[in-house]
Design a protein that fits this description.
Blueprint lengths: L3 E6 L2 H9 L8 E3 L10 E2 L1 H4 L9 H7 L4 E3 L3 H18 L3 E5 L2 E5 L10 H16 L3 E6 L2 H8 L7 E3 L5 H5 L12 H9 L5 H4 L4 H8 L1 H10 L16 E12 L4 H15 L8 E8 L4 E6 L8 H11 L10 E10 L10 H5 L5
Parallel strand pairs: 2-4, 7-8
Antiparallel strand pairs: 1-6, 1-7, 2-3, 5-6, 9-12, 10-11, 10-12
Helix pairs in contact: 4-5, 10-11, 12-13
Bound molecules: magnesium ion.
The site of magnesium ion has 5 residues, from β1.
GO molecular function, one term: DNA-directed DNA polymerase activity
Family: Belongs to the DNA polymerase type-Y family.
Subcellular location: Cytoplasm
Length: 357
């Protein structure tokens, strides 16, 4: 039986802001860029009382909570805090799988420390986070990732919750199906049409019927409803793709995209140099004012080996965007995909020697 922790920082970005600026403590804080199209990156618990949530348009947050203090995100500080927290995790186990800057799965079946239980490890990790970063975290403790993630939400903020193997069935049965990852609004509607509202209802359905209705996701539903999740905690997930994108204040025509593409290429290039792997495919992503997403990609014979090459390819991909004249774009992105291990003969040198401006 495995012991999995899901550790989730509480209102992470907003908490970092409140920690670093005492004036913000006790106040509704919304981390978001200013601008008509910006979305909320994080909201403090004081702001959540007004209904403000992550990913909601910033203008909506402003309407819900006009007295909120809006702070632009500062990822340098968030990353520094995230690194400190990750180092704390690594004292207890090497099996750490970060999901984002503020949450991670840990497999503590065979921990490096000698605490008597996974619960005690979670308590210690949360204590160390509090002491060393002045931030709070919540934890879920369970036999697998799926259950640990649900559990970490149960006593938020600054709490933890254990789902023991023998409690799994009783715990899951009364939960709404939306608690199962992958069950969004649309899937919820489909399940509801079959009379399935709760995880317990889902258990009445045999595997083949769920598969008939939902394909391979049906099999996953069948397993999750029974609390089964065999996915291992995977440390150091290899990089698959890296990208940077930007939403414009006002929609722009194709011929005005170049400066933004150049700027995004710099970001993507810098980020790609932090990995040990090499991206082979250059991707240009566009979203039209009608919200149509277009991607164009090119895989050159040899992987792009300089910022200039990456930029040139990204710019050249614009020529392959065949949209009616007058089409406007609200978003552009530049990415590198198809990451592979660095091949023999492709030394760090050749890759890192591009002119340093
Ligand atoms: Mg969080």
């Amino acid at each position: 039986m495995r012991k999995i922790l899901h550790i989730d920082m509480d209102a992470f970005y907003a908490s970092v802001e409140q920690r670093d600026n005492p004036d913000l403590r006790g106040k509704p804080v919304v981390v978001a860029w200013r601008g008509a199209r910006s979305v909320v990156c994080a909201a403090s618990y004081e702001a959540r009382k007004f209904g403000v949530r992550s990913a909601m348009p910033a203008v909506r947050a402003e309407r819900l909570c006009p007295q909120a203090v809006f702070v632009p995100p500062d990822f340098v500080r968030y990353k520094a805090a995230s690194k400190q927290i990750r180092d704390i995790f690594l004292r207890h186990t090497d099996l750490v799988e970060p999901l984002s800057l503020d949450e991670a799965y840990l497999d503590v079946t065979e921990p490096k420390t000698d605490f008597p239980s996974a619960t005690a490890i979670a308590e210690e990790i949360r204590r160390q986070i509090r002491e060393e970063t002045s931030l709070t975290a919540s934890a879920g403790i369970a036999p697998n990732k799926f259950l640990a993630k649900i559990a970490s939400d149960w006593r938020k903020p600054d709490g933890q919750f254990v789902i023991r193997p023998q409690q799994v069935d009783a715990f899951l049965a009364p939960l709404p199906v939306a608690k199962i990852p992958g069950v969004g609004k649309v899937m919820q509607g489909k399940l509801s049409a079959l009379g399935i509202e709760l995880v317990g209802d889902l258990r009445e359905y045999p595997m083949d019927e769920l598969q008939r209705n939902f394909g391979s996701f049906g099999a996953s539903l069948y397993r999750r409803a029974r609390g089964i999740d065999e996915r291992p905690v995977e440390p150091n997930q290899p990089v698959q793709s890296i990208s940077a994108e930007d939403t414009f204040e006002h929609d722009v025509p194709l011929h005005e995209l170049a400066p933004t593409i150049r700027r995004l290429a710099v970001k993507t290039w810098e980020a790609s140099r932090k990995t040990e792997r090499v991206g082979r495919t250059v991707v240009l992503k566009l979203k039209t004012s009608q919200f149509r997403i277009l991607t164009r990609s090119h895989t050159p014979e040899t992987p792009p080996d300089s910022l200039e090459t990456l930029t040139d390819i990204a710019l050249s991909l614009c020529a392959r965007v065949e949209q009616p004249e007058g089409t406007l774009y609200r978003l552009v992105g530049v990415g590198l995909g198809g990451f592979r291990e660095r091949e023999e003969g492709m030394s760090q040198g050749t890759l890192f020697n591009e002119s340093n401006p």
